[in-house]
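Write out this protein's structure.
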Amino acid sequence: MKKSTVAAESDDARDASLRVSKRVRDSLKAAAAVMGRPLYDVTNEAISDYLSGLKLGDPLAAIRRAGRARK
């Protein structure tokens, strides 16, 4: 009984994810059509804007620190 409940919950989460993805994809297609630009340009800009808004640490900082410590 538990297996079916867990499977149903993961299917619900996956369905919700697909609905959101489809909505985003449709929005990007509409924006590209309105602007008269290729979809990939609009998509790349949207991805770049999203990534620039994230507060990510410097992923290479730990590598640089480790390199300085060895010298």
